[in-house]
Amino acid sequence: MTPPFLEARGLCKSYGRPPRAVLRDLELELPRGGAWGLLGESGCGKSTLARLLLGLEAPDAGTILMEGQPLRRWRARHPGGMSVVFQDYTTSVPPQCSVEEILAEGFPPGGPRPGAGDLHALMDRVSLPRALARKRPHELSGGQLQRVCIARAIAARPAFLVLDEAVSSLDTPAQARILELLRDIRGDMTYLFITHDIQAAVFLCERLLFLHQGRIAASPPREDLFRTTNPIVRDLLDNALVFEDGG
Amino acid sequence: MSLTRAVREDRLGACCLIFLLAVFLAALLAPWIAPHDPLAVDVRQKFAPWSAEHWLGTDHLGRDVLSRLLHGARATLGFSLLTTILTLLAGALPGLLAGALRGRAEAALMRLCDALLAFPSEALILAAVGMLGPSPENAALACIVAKWPWYARMLCVVARQYADTNAVRFARVMGRGLPHILRRHILPRAAGEIVVLGTLHMGSFILTISALSFLGLGVQPPAPEWGAMLGEARDAMLLEPRLMLPSGAAILLTAAACNYLGDCLRDALEPGR
Q1: CATH number at residue B164
Q2: Domain carrying residue B219
Q3: Domain ranges, ordered by start, for chain A
Q4: Exposed e or buried b for every residue in B237-265, given b needs 16+ CB within 10 A?
Q5: I want to staple B217 with a disulfide (CB 3.0 to 4.6 A). Which of A94, A164, B212, B213 is the partner?
Q6: Which residue, B224, B194, B232, is CA-closest to B89?
Q7: Distance CA A70, CA A9 (A)
Q8: Into how many domains does chain B fold?
Q9: Among residues A76, A62, A176, which one has the least CA distance to residue B174?
Q10: How many C-beta neighbours within 10 Å does residue A217 have?
Q11: Residue B134: is its pLDDT beyond 80?
């Protein structure tokens, strides 16, 4: 039997003293391909889960397997196999580097150095004008900088891309453009789209994961989202609707 | 604000930089611009006043003070600069590595620094020179041993600050190693702070090296050095107090220029500038 693309078993993570549990025996299985939305209230552990899945932090307990292999071994065998786009694009790039240098960092380590053609193709893919290639981050708008971050993240054609609140810092028109871009360039990548914005998640993702009290509380497909009776999902949906009515 | 722009915009800072460059240039060119041999003794000329032949007069052995001051700058500034660079390297390498690695490496370095910084640095320097024997090399070595933990601690904090950014997290997710993270993300951003620390402490090392030579623990007579010259002038202080002026003023002005330039550069690195 083919193992799932990503499998997390019994993940636990606590912070602080006395320890405050953020993730409690979390179980997660993702098949290869598709876009998965990870939703939940602020502070429910969405970004913590992302850091564990990306190997940036180790869990207190539990295991993470990628295609049946421990995360560390899978990453060593697939350089550039996973990537990430963060919410705060200003701290996501080295400020002294040009756009070209930033993009070059997204290519697999140990591989051939990317040429001008590779970099231009990458910029074209995210609709970034080539004239920006030698600009520094402070010379770009927020939307342009987030496009640079997305281009860098997809440069190595990763199998798994985590989008951690990747559009939350942008204004609404820029959000819409970036979401369309993310949808268009997905190909065979597996997205984990972390957000508190249900509309954005519904736009981009086929299935939604609701994180509550350190566990995945529900994982309805997009089509069934508004028919679900799960109280946690209903609560989040109702709050989102109240907010929209009030707006 | 960039460091070069900060110096351009601060007139006193620019004056300090020009003064220091002039002093370093004079020290470099000393063998060619010094009017006399700094070691040539002429007791008939002892305590000669300031004149066209001896611009700053002569000392108790009739040696030309200006020539000794120019040659002395080579020893004082040379050893101070060498001590600053080596101390920065000795502190920066473990500090930046520990700050980038975090975890146990950082904790181990911090506890070692805590233990070493518990000794008063002046007492540690005097003890080290006392054990190793008086010489400028040993004085520089003692300064490095006493001061490196301070730099290591400072640069560990600087590296930790830059290692804790999304840019470095992205590099780690991509599987980039520590050398890449240091070269691309930490060193370029910490370079300004390293320059500021070095400039600020160059003044302090000038004072320390001069003080050790003044006490007879650094450069040994008859070699010229500002602190040693001040020590020799002290012996004739009642007869010729003016002899203390050239070397004393040189130490004071050069150390003050380093300190003010360091302050100017540090202000430029403050957030919001």
Answers
A1: 1.10.3720.10
A2: 3-45+53-269
A3: 1-78+159-247, 88-158
A4: eeebeebbebbbebbeebbebbbbbbbbb
A5: B212
A6: B194
A7: 12
A8: 1
A9: A76
A10: 17
A11: yes
Distance CA A15, CA B94 (A): 28
Averaged over B32-55, what is the pLDDT?
A: 91
| Residue with the two structure tokens 């390498």 | B93
Which residues, 6 or more positions from B239, have their beta carbon under 8 angstroms from its beta carbon?
Answer: B47
Contact A105 B169 (CB under 8 A): no
| Paired residues of A194 in beta bridges | A38, A164
Q: Which ipTM was obtained for this model?
A: 0.90
| Joined tokens for residue A174 | 């820029």
Angle between helical axes of B121-132 and B187-214 (0-180°, round to 10): 60
> Is the domain defined by A1-78+159-247 classed in CATH 3.30.470.20?
no
Selection from B73, B60, B63 nearest residue B31 by Cα: B73
**How do residues A90-143 score in pLDDT, each as one tens digit?**
889 998 899 999 999 999 888 888 888 999 988 988 888 999 999 999 999 888
- Per CB-CB distance under 8 Å, the chain A contacts of B172 are 55-56
| Number of alpha helices (DSSP H) and beta strands (DSSP E) in chain A | 8, 10
Residue B171 has its nearest CB partner, among A82, A105, A153, at A105
Give the contacts of B56 (CB within 8 A, at least 6 positions apart): B50, B64, B65, B66, B69, B246
Is the CB of residue A53 less than 8 Å from the CB of residue A209?
no
Query: Which residues on A lie below 8 Å from B177 (Cβ)?
Result: 109
**Residue A160 near residue A5, CB atoms below 8 Å:** yes
Give backbone dihedrals phi and psi of A71, rounded to 5 degrees, phi first: -50, -45
Q: What is the dihedral of CA B54, B55, B57, B62, to 10 degrees?
A: -30
Residues of B in contact with A93 (CB under 8 A): 167
